[in-house]
Design a protein that fits this description.
By secondary structure, the chain is mostly beta strands. The protein folds into 2 domains: 81 residues, Serine Threonine Protein Phosphatase 5, Tetratricopeptide repeat (Alpha Horseshoe); 301 residues, Neuraminidase (6 Propeller), CATH 2.120.10.80. The protein has 7 helices and 28 strands. It is elongated, with a radius of gyration of 25 Å.
Length: 394
């Protein structure tokens, strides 16, 4: 019994559903019923009833093993009545999902999606819980941060919020608010976390300047970083973190920020691409493409070299209507395309995955919810490990 309870008490247990733990307990007891049945009430205290459905709990109460032992039935009823004793799902209950938001007027929805698994979960939030914001990041620790305006009384300040997986909502992260630039000039903003430090980056319409600030939790304040002076003013640019660096990328310029030295250095730009609108990092490499998905380029951050990849063989009579969205799911490069046809104006969403061995884009039979306007957070769609039990019923 000690060995069994030690195993089923672990957060790292790789099960997709808590009912699998119950089924294992049943098999263990039934293997030597007379010797083990009296242990059942103790073992049941290690099962996370808050992760079971009402039907699962009802089925447990009606199981012959539980009905035979009144003590077991009483344990289950007491745990259910007291509420959630351990809210944390187990390791196997997470799924990598890309995050996008619905920019349709009046919508306050986030889409969590994994096209390869056929999972598309749309969550609606109250306006005060998720105001319109494109400033979101997922850290290597699976923390999700969002910067949003403090409210109508002060629209020129951002507050940092952290996503609570258990509550499926955002909570104040405890960081001081940060002032943003003039709304009239502001073009794009981003946040990243690199080596334990959060960075806020902004660039402005018609101004060849990129401003950046950093936040360290132990000092609890924002600090100015070295600013980036661009050679050419560009509207379309991609900003992303890769390893211990931050990259700013256009078709004609590429810069890398060195956090330890607080300085920007020039790198080799992609060259042949007409406009860089989306870019994402995978390992030590950066992938990017243009607004029409005509070219896909691969950048090796260690050698500072670019490589042209096979382009998209677009279907006949379809063209990309909005900026593509790159993401990395399960260590594979994905792209979400919003397309329209020559024959009708209805938007069609297509998802492709890049097959590196064949140097080809292959379409996934995606089934995204229709009548949405999906947009990325920044220049790519961030990916997080989402605890599916917490999204039940949304």
């Amino acid at each position: 019994m000690n060995q069994l309870t030690e195993i089923i008490s672990h957060d790292e247990l790789d099960v997709k559903e808590e009912s699998t733990v119950w089924e294992a307990v049943v098999r263990w007891v039934q293997h030597s019923r007379e010797d083990r049945l009296h242990h059942l009430p103790i073992i049941l205290s290690y099962i996370r009833f808050n992760l079971l459905t009402v039907d699962d709990t009802t089925a447990m109460l009606e199981h012959p093993l539980v009905r035979e032992d009144p003590g077991s039935s009483e344990v289950i009823q007491n745990v259910v009545q007291k509420g959630n004793l351990n809210l944390k799902p187990r390791l196997g209950m997470t799924m990598e999902m890309a995050l996008a938001y619905d920019a349709a007027p009046g919508s306050n929805e986030l889409l969590f999606m994994n096209p390869q698994k056929g999972k598309y979960i749309s969550c609606s939030y109250k306006p005060e819980d998720l105001p319109k914001s494109s400033i979101l990041t997922v850290t290597s620790d699976n923390d999700i941060y969002i910067l949003k305006t403090k409210g109508s009384e002060d629209n020129n300040k951002f507050s940092l919020f952290k996503y609570s997986h258990a509550e499926n909502m955002w909570e104040q992260a405890g960081a001081p608010s940060i002032s943003k630039g003039p709304d009239d000039d502001l073009y794009d903003e981003h946040i990243f976390k690199v080596d334990g430090t959060l960075y806020y980056l902004a660039f402005y319409d018609g101004r060849p300047l990129v401003q950046m600030r950093k936040y360290k939790p132990h000092t609890n304040h924002w600090q100015e970083c070295s600013q980036l002076q661009l050679d050419i003013t560009k509207d379309e640019a991609a900003v992303l973190s890769c390893g211990s660096h931050i990259y700013f990328l256009t078709d004609e310029e590429m810069h890398r920020y060195e956090p330890r030295e607080d300085r920007w250095s020039k790198r080799t730009p992609p060259g042949i691409i007409h406009s860089v609108c989306t870019a994402v990092a995978m390992g030590t490499e950066i992938f990017c493409t243009d607004s029409s998905f005509s070219y896909t380029m691969l950048y090796d951050t260690e050698s500072d070299r670019w490589q042209k990849l096979q382009g998209w063989e677009d279907p006949e009579n379809l063209y990309v209507a909005r900026f593509p969205i790159l993401s990395v799911l399960q260590n594979q490069l994905h792209i979400l395309l919003a397309c329209v046809s020559d024959f009708h104006d209805d938007m069609v969403y297509l998802v492709y995955v890049y097959d590196r061995s064949a140097d080809a884009w292959k379409e996934l039979k995606a089934n995204l919810p229709i009548n949405k306007e999906y947009y990325s957070f920044g220049s790519y769609s961030p990916v997080a490990r989402i605890y599916l039990p917490y999204l039940k019923g949304t």
